[in-house]
Amino acid sequence: MTKRKKSAWQQKTIFFLEKYLAAGFVLLLGATYKYRLIGKKPEGNVIFAFWHRDILPLFYLHRFSKFVVLISSSKDGEFIAGPAEVLGYQTARGSSTRGGSSALKKMIKLSRNYTVAITPDGPKGPIYEVKEGVIHLALITKKPLVPLTVRVNREKVLNSWDKFRIPKLFSKIEVVYGDPIFVQSKDEIDRKRIQLQEILLKQNKK
């Protein structure tokens, strides 16, 4: 009993320290980046869709903005949620694939006043495969989906399922804002999912 309480306390302490250390790391590293924005950055609240591996450079770019991010409710997700909140993001924990999930409900509510950010191939992959959850969200909220891709000239790529990228100091980073995608009906869901996936893959290669 005592051992379990101690273990839980230790875990909370680790998460508490990690969120500030990780946020500090992102701020220090990001301050050296040189960003170049390509395409028209949308005005108003939209749904940004980007690959899971691009989280770090985009976290710095959009810090302290009115964004809500969908993050897994797993322990791994906690390591992202903590720093995200320190960097000014609202967070919704869970999955967008279940229509009745509390995470989806929270995102629908916050989408009225916040831009939504989702990694459609997360939280566990497969890499570069768009799932339907983000398309359903666009349909329900009537918000446009904006494909967002990142190109980095110097980076460390981790040996993880998503090939998570950490741009090195003083990296040059291109962020590409794609044209908005509107989802008008349930009949379009699969077609729009494929369209989003193809655009994200194409923008990465240019």
What is the number of strand segments?
Answer: 9
CA radius of gyration is 17 Å
Broad structural category: alpha/beta
**Average pLDDT score:** 89
Would you write up a description of this structure?
- The mean pLDDT is 89.
- 40% of the residues lie in helices and 20% in strands.
- It has helices spanning 2-30, 55-61, 75-86, 102-110, 133-141, 189-205, and strands spanning 34-38, 47-49, 67-71, 90-93, 115-118, 145-152, 155-157, 165-167, 172-177.
- It has a 7-stranded mixed beta sheet, with helices on both faces. It has a two-stranded antiparallel ribbon with strand order 7-8.
- The protein has one domain (2-205).
- Helix 3 links the parallel strand 3 (67-71) and strand 4 (90-93).
- It is α/β, with parallel strands linked by helices and 206 residues long.
- Helix 1 (2-30) packs across helix 3 (75-86) and helix 5 packs across helix 6.
